[in-house]
Amino acid sequence: MFEKHYRELKHFLLNRLRDHDLAADAAQECFSRAVAMQHEGAAVLDPRALLFKIANNWLIDEHRKQSSRPELMSLEEEQKHGYLPSATQHVDPEQIASANQQLDKLLTIINELPPRCREAFILFKFDGLSYQEIAQRMHISPRTVEMQLRIAMAACIKGLEYSNLPD
């Protein structure tokens, strides 16, 4: 079944996803689901039709996930939106001192995160890995990666807001 339909299925997914790695991962997921259905005793009369139905459902699920929750921004996006200064912006010494204090506070917050949460955060923010890459590296699901990153971001935001309160 794999050899017969993989190429066509991957091409189908690639046309919709526009990402070779994601299409390959999605195709593998479709095959895994089809094999699981067979092992559960489901009668598969047309394996090709089953694979494409699974792929279509997978695409719909992914679209729903993406549209129902915003992704965390990468460092480049944060800089593009003005959340981080670019190399060409002039920064005065007071801003540098304040930024250093914020950075020290942020590093303390990151170091106090639970180990798996800290690891996911560092892989995403500093190493620039995607949810899928982090999930593979940490042997967890992409959904767990998302939850760990949300916990980390909430801790960072809360900690930085708390440190900015007037005395």
UniProtKB/TrEMBL annotation:
InterPro entries: RNA_pol_sigma-70-like, RNA_pol_sigma-70_dom, RNA_pol_sigma70_r2, RNA_pol_sigma70_r4_t2, RNA_pol_sigma_r2, RNA_pol_sigma_r3/r4-like, WH-like_DNA-bd_sf. Residues 1-68 form the RNA polymerase sigma-70 region domain. Residues 104-156 form the RNA polymerase sigma factor 70 region 4 type domain. Keywords: Sigma factor, Transcription, Transcription regulation. It holds the Pfam family Sigma70_r2. Belongs to the sigma-70 factor family. ECF subfamily. PANTHER family: RNA POLYMERASE ECF-TYPE SIGMA FACTO, RNA POLYMERASE SIGMA FACTOR FECI-RELATED. This is RNA polymerase sigma factor.
